[in-house]
Every structure is written in structure tokens, then in C-alpha cells.
Specification:
It contains two helices and no strands. The chain has about 70 residues and is an all-alpha fold. The protein is elongated, with a radius of gyration of 20 Å.
């Protein structure tokens, strides 16, 4: 398992789970790593989804009042 990541223990467990099938197959050359900025992916996705939903709900509200 890779331990050279600056991320917390949750990420280390995830990396270990990603690497486990490869270790079971004795493919030790495959290594899963995380990017330090990967923690922002969820927040960016939520912001994009929120903006989409806001626009969609405004569109539905406008259509309902007409």
C-alpha cells in the first residue's frame, strides 16, 4: 500500500482497497495514488449540481406561474 500521500486515513483505506485486487493477482506494479486536490472534487461537483438545480427549479417556477 502507498503511504506517501498527504491525505488522511480515509484516503489511505480507499487506496488500500483499490490496490488489494491487484495484490491478490500478484500485480504489484500497479499503484493507486491520490492527488492532493482530489478532496475538492466533491465540493466542485456539489456546486455545479446546485447551480443546475437552481436554474431548473427557477425555470419550472416560471412555467408554473404563466
Amino acid at each position: 500500500m502507498s503511504t506517501d500521500t498527504p491525505d488522511g486515513p480515509e484516503v489511505l483505506r480507499l487506496v488500500a482497497r483499490c490496490e488489494a485486487p491487484f495484490e491478490d493477482l500478484h500485480l504489484n506494479a500497479v499503484t493507486a495514488v491520490s492527488h492532493p486536490d482530489s478532496i475538492y472534487a466533491g465540493a466542485i461537483g456539489a456546486a455545479l449540481w446546485g447551480a443546475f438545480r437552481h436554474g431548473k427549479l427557477r425555470q419550472l417556477e416560471t412555467a408554473a406561474t404563466v
